[in-house]
């Protein structure tokens, strides 16, 4: 039954971020260690293999 439902699913042409979140997205991203989280708010200016520059 699951394979049949997956076959019927329609992919989105222009996917968007959800407007409402549970708050667990931040926690799971932080705990996984896969996300880079900045201590201060700012705008990302440049990204290289080992460095990320953020303008405050």
TrEMBL record:
Database matches in Gene3D superfamilies: 2.40.50.100, 3.90.1100.10
Domain of life, per lineage: Bacteria
Annotated protein name in UniProt: DNA-directed RNA polymerase
UniProt source species: Bacillus safensis
């Amino acid at each position: 039954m699951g394979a049949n439902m997956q076959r019927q699913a329609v992919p989105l042409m222009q996917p968007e971020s959800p407007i409402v979140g549970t708050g667990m997205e931040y926690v799971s991203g932080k705990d996984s260690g896969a996300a880079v989280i900045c201590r201060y708010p700012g705008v990302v200016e440049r990204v290289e293999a080992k460095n990320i520059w953020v303008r405050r």
